[in-house]
Recover the amino acids of this structure.
């Protein structure tokens, strides 16, 4: 018991130093330290989901150190300056690369603007995965120190493969956003009636009919090519909501193609959005007024559903649940 408390203490110290650690800017070749980059612009985008005190609700996956009793998600009220931030770029690159999505009006129909939204999201996912890997390593190291005679196993392979894929897609997107070369991505933007929610994520969905999403080839060997995935950004802007869906042309994600089509043809996308929020995301934001208008019972069901499906990446998740209806 005493050892358990000590392990917890050491883990907590290590966790906090991982989060506080300086990180290098993600711009290729830059050696400056990253500042806190906002994934989505504060004024004009995030400000659409805040209350009068500049706060919004964030629904997020609890980090590995804090998980207990099968609970994976928490709902937290966060300030506009602190939420949606990650150590991505140095101040100079944060300003210079993202100018088109940080000044008004944002031309959401421009392919370079769509690429920039996707690029920042990809960088967020990459940094999160790097941090997650360090956390896994810290857990392993700590357990080994405290219980040297026991066998410890922490499988970091999926995270390492994820990092490798994200680095590939990042560099492919840099052709477009940094080097002004022809795009290797398909970007789609669909606008619909305003929903006061925001999310930015890159998802890899297992598709039985698309071998590009399979971790092993037909002979059972680990694949060396990246897994097909998508990049999603959804937010309100100037009275409408918009979703930007991107994917690499050589590694298409059919789930995302289907998503684009179904939102474009829907008169009420609430169920489609609810499915993404409930079954696919590890982090998203919602306006307090909207969140508080959802009955408590519905929120409980939402959290339960999110827990039940938290590690489900299958193509079809079919349920009746709709957070907004
Ligand atoms: Zn930099």
């Amino acid at each position: 018991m005493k050892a358990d408390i000590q392990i917890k203490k050491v883990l907590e110290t290590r966790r906090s130093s991982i989060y506080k650690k300086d990180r290098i800017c993600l711009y290729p070749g830059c050696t400056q330290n990253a500042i806190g980059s906002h994934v989505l612009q504060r004024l004009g985008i995030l400000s659409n989901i805040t209350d009068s005190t500049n706060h919004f609700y964030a629904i997020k996956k609890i980090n590995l150190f804090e998980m207990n009793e099968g609970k994976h998600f928490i709902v937290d009220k966060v300030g506009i300056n602190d939420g949606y931030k990650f150590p991505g770029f140095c101040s100079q690159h944060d300003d210079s690369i993202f100018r088109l999505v940080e000044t008004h009006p944002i031309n959401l129909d421009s392919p370079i603007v769509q690429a920039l939204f996707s690029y920042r999201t990809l960088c967020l996912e990459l940094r999160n995965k790097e941090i997650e890997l360090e956390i896994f390593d810290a857990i392993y190291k700590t357990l080994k120190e405290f219980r040297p005679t026991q066998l410890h196993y922490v499988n970091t392979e999926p995270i390492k493969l994820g990092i490798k894929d994200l680095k590939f897609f990042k560099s492919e997107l840099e052709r477009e956003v940094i080097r002004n070369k022809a795009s290797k991505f398909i970007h789609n933007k669909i606008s619909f009636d305003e929903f006061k929610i925001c999310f930015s994520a890159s998802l890899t969905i297992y598709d039985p009919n698309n071998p590009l999403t399979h971790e092993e080839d037909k002979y059972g060997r680990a694949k060396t090519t990246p897994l097909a995935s998508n990049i999603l950004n959804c937010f309100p802007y100037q009275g409408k909501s918009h979703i930007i869906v991107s994917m690499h042309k050589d590694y298409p994600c059919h789930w995302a193609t289907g998503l684009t089509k179904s939102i474009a043809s829907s008169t009420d996308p609430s169920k489609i959005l609810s499915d993404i929020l409930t079954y696919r995301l590890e982090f998203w934001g919602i306006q307090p007024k909207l969140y508080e208008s959802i009955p408590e019972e519905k929120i409980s069901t939402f959290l339960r559903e999110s827990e039940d499906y938290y590690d489900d990446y299958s193509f079809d998740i079919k349920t009746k649940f709709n957070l907004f209806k």
Observations:
- The mean pLDDT is 93.
- The radius of gyration is 20 Å.
- Residues 25, 27, 30, 32, 89-90, 92-93 surround zinc ion (CB under 6 Å).
- The chain is about 40% helix and 20% strand.
